[in-house]
Design a protein that fits this description.
10 helices, single chain, globular, about 70% helix
Length: about 250
């Protein structure tokens, strides 16, 4: 159940991050969004390029920011896949893995009260098997988002390390979602990694402990992505209501 929960929360993470990024791009020009998220944009693009190179694909016409206001990171799709199945999986996995690694390094180097361990958030490590359990998971997810928001409100500007860590975490979490063209590969990669970890735990007793040690990081990322999505949707609703009232005045 632990590895099924791992796959589930990773999928929730990338789709929540994709929702946040999409909504931000509807509020602001795409180029401006990627400039705001520049650290995450850079790491995500580097991960994508690394995945393409590792799968034997040719990287062509890659840029961090496009020329126009509506242009984000760009890279021409490969003409052919050198590794038909594992290639797209590797390309889809690398942006997520690169951003998670960068977030771990940021927490280690910067520290502060916004590190995954400091927030104390821990999502369920098992998939619910009842209808009541599903509501319990949803409640825990919303509660985790509320705790993230409370932590952000209580930071205080003098604590520059926590503020910097929060900014880096937002940049990296929002950009954890791979480009839409590689989204199917990312989902397949998550399922494959969870299955391999489950098989590894059968022959290595430390496999489960290794996954559990990374659980605070995963819980922090999911909670932050969900909190950002809820805040963004609320802002979109207010902006949309304001436009309706202005046009009707």
């Amino acid at each position: 159940m632990l590895y099924a929960a791992l796959a589930f929360w990773l999928i929730v993470l990338i789709f929540s991050a994709a929702g946040v990024y999409t909504q931000w791009c509807r509020l602001l020009p795409v180029r401006s969004v990627n400039l705001i998220l520049l650290p995450g944009t850079l790491i995500s693009q580097l991960g994508l390029v690394a995945g393409m190179l590792m799968s034997g694909q040719t990287v062509r016409n890659t840029s961090l920011l496009g020329g126009g206001d509506d242009a984000g990171p760009q890279s021409d799709p490969p003409q052919e896949a050198r590794i038909p199945v594992l290639g797209p999986i590797l390309v889809g996995l690398m942006p997520v893995l690169a951003c998670l690694t960068a977030l771990w390094l940021a927490a280690w180097l910067v520290g502060g009260r916004m590190t995954p361990g400091a927030t104390g958030i821990a999502l369920a490590a098992a998939i619910p098997t009842s209808f009541e359990g599903v509501w319990g998971v949803l409640h825990a997810l919303l509660e985790s988002g509320r705790r993230i928001i409370d932590s952000c409100i209580g930071l205080g500007l003098p604590d520059w390390r926590s503020v910097l860590m929060l900014y880096l975490a937002i940049c990296l979490v929002v950009r954890m979602s791979p480009p839409e063209a590689h989204l199917r590969g990312a989902i397949a990669a998550i399922g494959l990694v969870a299955a391999l970890l489950g098989l590894l735990s059968l022959i290595w007793s430390g496999g489960r402990e290794a996954v559990l040690s990374a659980w605070p990081m995963l819980s922090f990322c999911v909670a932050l992505a969900v909190a950002l999505l809820l805040i963004t949707l609320a802002i979109r609703g207010v902006v949309g209501l304001g436009r309706i009232l202005i046009r009707g005045a």
